[in-house]
Design goal:
By secondary structure, this protein is of the alpha+beta class. The protein contains 15 helices and 8 strands. It has a 4-stranded antiparallel β-sheet with strand order 1-2-7-4, sandwiched between helices. The site of cobalamin has 36 residues, from α2, α5, β7 and α7.
């Protein structure tokens, strides 16, 4: 066999082996092509479904091909890391499962992918690589499908037949050629539509399309400078940060394996956050408590705003003293949410 081809095969094998050692459950490799989801992405943006996430539209040309992220990319290596943990969800405020551990997943995945990329750099020092987790203009789920990891469910999640959908994705783009996996063909959702029916805010205008304006994950994490419409505040229910409903109801997640990796060990105060404590945090306490966690990203004001909305939805009478104090908060988003919550508690407690 030609030496170069042999080397490509060996490096591909080593990448898969090293990925497993680094805690990735699946690593697939796709050719760098213009992704089939590019036109759906443009339609999604044009329909306003990206809401205020302007950073997506601003870079829409770069999504056309991985070259927009790393010029002359030949291969897109996609890795999946399971974050599932069986811990029961509390009766109180809820944080999405992906955010239960002390470390932010962007940092964790980037670090491990960089370690993996070192093999490419040492074998082919003249080739370039770039590690991508979330923030680059790359349709990660589309490339995960092209790399054979799974299919895009009606809830828009990438689903694997072995792992369900409780996993993160990350990618390494490289100018090097590798051995490619077959794209995942087929759609194992069948006639099921549980996720579409279960979404409390009707965020799916149609299967495979999510309107971020209505998604609790967007509302609790990304919507940081505008108020939330009252019907959506009610739809947020107990969700303080993110939302897992369209994954919890998915039959493919029924037997999802756990990840015992110490990096995903959940923190008690994130599995079961205390609403009254959260309503009282100031910036300093927030920083001390949540520095390095996924919650740090939104900052204190947004978490307190969300906590006020949850208190209103739960008609939590015990929260009224804190909510009353929040009527004088420096943040107008917090003041507005506190006023709404007090009104909810008042309205609902009248027989
Ligand atoms: C913006 C964003 C969001 C937005 C918008 C989500 C969305 N559905 O578009 C908001 C804030 C709402 C969000 C929420 C969540 N997110 Co998010 N998010 C992203 C981000 C940064 C970009 C996604 C994007 O480009 N959306 C635009 C749409 C058009 O693209 P898409 O969702 O990939 O859609 C593709 C398919 O739907 C397909 N398609 C379109 N039409 C059709 C039609 C048919 C028939 C078919 C088959 C396919 C198809 O083509 C599209 C383009 O590839 C990605 C990371 C990344 N760079 O990819 C993470 C990412 C998608 N999020 C992730 C996670 C974990 C979540 C949450 C579960 C967090 C939580 N618990 O709260 C929720 C899940 C909500 C949901 N059901 O999607 C993971 C998903 C992992 C997985 N297994 O799929 C990612 C990949 C981050 C990561 N690095 O791990 N997220
Ligand atoms: S994450 Fe929650 S709000 Fe968003 S689409 Fe899924 S069920 Fe609906
Ligand atoms: S709940 Fe059903 S329709 Fe929705 S993603 Fe899972 S299998 Fe597909």
């Amino acid at each position: 066999m030609n030496t170069r081809l042999h080397q490509i095969g060996e490096v591909t094998k080593s990448l898969k082996h090293n990925a497993a050692e680094l805690g990735f459950q699946h690593l697939g490799i796709a050719r760098a092509v213009s992704p089939p989801g590019y036109h759906p992405l443009l339609e999604w943006i044009a329909s306003g479904h990206a809401a205020d996430m302007d950073w997506i539209a601003r870079r829409k040309d770069a999504y056309r091909h991985p070259d927009g992220v790393l010029p002359n990319t030949r291969s897109v290596i996609v890795a999946a890391m399971n974050y599932h943990n069986q811990s029961p969800q509390p009766e109180t405020a809820r944080i999405a499962r992906y955010a239960w551990s002390s470390e932010d997943y962007h940092t964790l995945l980037r670090h491990r992918l960089k370690e993996l990329a070192r093999l490419l750099q040492t074998t082919w020092p003249n080739e370039r690589t770039r590690v991508v987790v979330d923030t680059a203009p790359l349709l990660e789920r589309d490339f995960a499908r092209l790399a054979g990891i799974g299919w895009v469910g009606k809830n828009t999640m990438l689903i694997s037949r072995n792992m369900g959908s409780w996993f993160f994705l990350g990618a390494i783009l490289t100018t090097a050629e590798l051995t490619y996996d077959q794209p995942f063909e087929g759609d194992y959702c069948g006639t099921c539509s549980k996720c579409l029916q279960a979404c409390p805010t009707d965020a799916f205008p149609e299967p495979h399309v999510l309107d971020s304006n209505r998604c609790i994950s967007y509302l609790t994490i990304e919507r940081r400078d505008k108020s939330i419409a009252d019907d959506l505040k009610s739809g947020m229910g107990d969700w303080l940060f993110g939302c897992d409903i369209c994954q919890e109801v998915c039959p493919w997640n029924r037997f999802a394996p756990d990840n015992s990796d110490a990096a995903f060990k959940p923190r008690e105060d994130l599995i079961a956050p205390d609403l009254l404590t959260l309503l009282s945090v100031n910036d300093d306490v927030f920083q001390q408590q949540f520095c390095g966690t996924p919650l740090e990203r939104t900052g204190r004001d947004i978490i307190v705003r969300n906590a006020a909305i949850v208190a209103g939805n739960q008609q939590c009478v015990a929260a009224v003293p804190q909510l009353t104090r929040l009527l004088d908060d420096a943040s107008d988003l917090v003041r507005e949410a506190a006023a709404w919550a007090i009104q909810q508690i008042g309205t609902k407690s009248v027989p």
